[in-house]
Amino acid sequence: MGERLRRLRKAKGFTQVELAEAIGSSQRMITYYEKHDGVPAAPVLLRLAEVLGTSAEEILGLQRPRRRAEPETPESIRL
């Protein structure tokens, strides 16, 4: 779980401190989750998912990452 959380955090441009503040936690806890594969309590996990724009299942590795929609370009539109 730790590596997925780190990847999701960085993809959203959060530092550990910023993510901790956004979920009402501490940087120390974010470090613990990322480095030691600590699993947060359900309310914290749900808040992480909300702030990171993903699902708790994705953070836990129970669901594949969502595909990001590719921007539509004139070349990608088929007539």
Rg is: 15 Å
β-strand number: 0
- Portion of residues in beta strands equals under 5%
Unreliable spans = none
Helix content: 40-55%
Largest sheet: none
Straight-line N-to-C gap: 43 Å
* SSE pattern, N- to C-terminal: HHHHH
Question: Shape, please?
Answer: globular
Structural class: mainly alpha
Number of helices: 5
| Overall average residue pLDDT | 85
Summarize the topology.
Layout: H1 2-11, H2 16-23, H3 27-35, H4 42-52, H5 56-60
Helix pairs in contact: 1-3, 2-3
Report on this model:
- This protein has 79 residues and is mainly α.
- Helix content is 54%, strand content 0%.
- The chain is built from 5 helices and no strands.
- The protein has helices at residues 2-11, 16-23, 27-35, 42-52, 56-60.
- The model has no long low-confidence stretch (mean pLDDT 85).
At a glance:
With 79 residues, the chain is mainly alpha-helical. It is built from 5 helices and no strands.
Provide the descriptors you would attach to this structure in a database record.
single chain; 79 residues; mainly alpha; 5 helices
